[in-house]
Specification:
Structural class: mainly alpha
Number of strands: 0
Strand content: under 5%
Largest sheet: none
Distance between the termini: 87 Å
Order of helices and strands: HHHHH
Length: 113
């Protein structure tokens, strides 16, 4: 009987969730309650709701501008890198680039011409 009890205890560790699961559930419940509370406060105060909306729009706009600036910077740095290459390496690079994207370049040229 004691052997069966020991086996049962070993199996329950595998079957029952550990305390991490309970803590995660508790955090989710608390987050949901906080969200509900904040949504209720925002619903009752249109001014705050509009300010938050404007702030989110400005934030998203700034992230788009940041991505655009990063793209322009990488493009410029790439061009600078190509300009500083020795002529024979530059020719190889351009030939390899064209070979890699030949299909896309040809399709683009066919559409535009």
């Amino acid at each position: 009987m004691i052997e069966n009890l020991e086996e049962l205890l070993k199996k329950t560790d595998k079957v029952l969730p550990n305390e991490d699961l309970f803590l995660e559930v508790a955090r989710d419940i608390i987050k949901d309650e906080i969200k509900s509370y904040l949504k209720e406060k925002m619903k009752n105060n249109p001014k705050i709701r509009e300010e938050i909306r404007d702030a989110i729009l400005k934030y998203v706009d700034s992230k788009v501008k940041e991505a655009e600036a990063n793209t322009l910077l990488l493009k410029s740095l790439g061009e600078l890198g190509v300009l500083t290459l020795p002529p024979e390496v530059k020719d190889d690079l351009i030939a390899h680039f064209y070979k890699t994207f030949q299909k896309e370049i040809d399709e683009f040229l066919d559409k535009t011409l």
